[in-house]
Amino acid sequence: MPERCYGIPACGGFLLSDDRVHARDDFAEGDEIVMFGDLLDCLQKIIYYRERHDERRRIAENAFNRINKEHTYVHRAKKLMAAINEFHGAKA
Hints:
The protein is about 65% helix and about 5% strand. The chain contains five helices and two strands. It has a two-stranded parallel ribbon with strand order 1-2. The N and C termini lie far apart (about 30 Å).
C-alpha cells in the first residue's frame, strides 16, 4: 500500500481510497478506512461523507488510533528486524 494510506490517518485525516486488497489487512473497512470501487462510487461517498462530519471524524479517529497502535515506523522496524532474524535463523 502507498504511504498515504498510513500518512493521512496518522495526521488525523479521513482516508477515502480506491479499493485496495491489502488495506483490509491493516484497516477495518467502514470503521477505519472507506474505499470506493469506481468513479461514481467515489463521488457518492464524497457526497455522503461531506454531510456526515461525526461519522467521518469517528472513522478518522479510529484509523489514527490503529496507526499509533500497530503501524508506526517503530512497528515496521521491529517487523523488519524480526524477519531478518528469522531468515538468518533459518539459514543456520
